[in-house]
Amino acid sequence: MNVDELNELRQVACDTAVSAGKLAREMWSQPRQISHKGFRDLVTDADIATQQCITDAVQARYPDHGFLTEEEDSQLSATGPIIWIIDPIDGTTNYSRQLPEFCVSVAACRPHPGGYEPLAAAIYDPMREELFSAAKGQGATLQIGGADPTPMQVSPITNTAQAVMAVDWSASAATRLNIMGLVNKLAQDSFTLRAIGTAALAMAWVAAGRVDGYLNLRLRPWDVAAALLLLQESGGTIVQPNGEPIVWDTAGMACVASNGRLTLNL
Ligand code: IPD
Ligand code: CA
Ligand code: CA
After folding, report:
1. Cα–Cα distance between 196 and 202 in angstroms, integer?
2. Which of 104, 135, 110 is nearest to 10 (CA)?
3. Is the CB of 90 under 6 A from ligand 1?
4. Helix (H), strand (E), coil (C) string for 209-265
5. 168 CB under 6 A from ligand 1?
6. Does residue 266 sit within a domain?
7. Bridge partners of 108?
8. Quick one: 17 and 105 in the same domain?
9. What domain count does the chain have?
10. Domain range for 220
11. Residue 10 lies in a domain
12. How far is the centre of ligand 2, averaged over its atoms, from the C-alpha of 57 (Å)?
């Protein structure tokens, strides 16, 4: 794929993430229809509306592309030369309680046996009008409001004792127990530890150098795909807690995102 094609994918990722984010922001303060789709797993009418907003726009531009979306949609093809991996609202629990930490995550990925190679990505925080984006080999940028985009770099911190870390809980009780063990260690080893409630946005903040590392033991591809490219293009990484490469799995992925300079000994 040439640079023009990559940049076009990035533009579509940005445009769709921003349109969906604006819709989510408009709906944020209105009464929500909330339902439970699983144990400690919510979906709102805004998740459905924002996903539709993104998939309609992508389908209009790239009719042969496929989708891997958080919310079920039987109308969408799962196959194609490019798969759009979409989390229409990451941080749904925050969103449903009018906590203002949530984002839209959109990644255009090349599928390969066993996983995906993100080629272009956008994560948009509509409450702060912050657009994090990247294209493979083209770097990552942060655009705030109407200002020009500026290049993103992970933080230079190497000493865990100075690191601002973030973590999130997963739904399953067993996974929470495992996280407790790691939280216990991180809380003692790091400068401080935050639980933000939106994995994609927390990892975008790692890519922007605001946070030094982020831990989650049960993410899904739609939480990870866009953030992975942002991190790769800003000098960071996402690996498993044991340092091995991540394994793409819709059932759950253990992930540590970092500036790639910390030794966390998890
Ligand atoms: C969740 C959020 C949360 C993380 C969960 C995710 P959702 O995504 O990213 O921070 O702890 O693992 O499932 O359901 O809000 O899109
Ligand atoms: Ca999510
Ligand atoms: Ca979601």
Report:
1. 7
2. 135
3. yes
4. CCCCEEEEEEECHHHHHHHHHHHHHHCCEEECCCCCECCCCCCCEEEEEECCCCCCC
5. yes
6. no
7. 84, 120
8. yes
9. 2
10. 160-258
11. yes
12. 21
What letter does residue 71 receive in the DSSP assignment?
Answer: S
Q: What is the CATH number of the domain that holds 216?
A: 3.40.190.80
Domain termination residue (choose one: 151, 180, 205): 151
Residue 263 maps to a domain: no
Q: What CATH code is carried by the domain that includes residue 50?
A: 3.30.540.10
Taking the CA of residue 90 as reference, the ligand 1 atom at the shortest distance is: 16
Please say which residue of 131, 151, 171 terminates a domain. 151
Ligand 1 proximity of 47 Cβ (cutoff 6 Å): no
How many angstroms is it from 160 CA to the middle of ligand 2?
27
Instruction: Tell me how far the alpha carbon of residue 91 lies from the centroid of ligand 1, in angstroms.
Output: 5
Ligand lying closest to the C-alpha of residue 37: 1
In tens digits, what is the pLDDT along the chain, a chain of 266 residues?
899 999 999 999 999 999 999 999 999 988 889 899 988 888 999 999 999 999 999 999 999 999 999 999 999 999 999 999 999 999 999 999 999 999 999 999 999 999 999 999 999 999 999 999 999 999 999 999 999 999 999 999 999 999 999 999 988 999 999 999 999 999 999 999 999 999 999 999 999 999 999 999 999 999 999 999 999 999 999 999 999 999 999 999 999 999 999 998 88
Ligand 1 neighbourhood includes 233 CB (under 6 angstroms): no
Residue 252 CA to ligand 3 centre (angstroms): 14
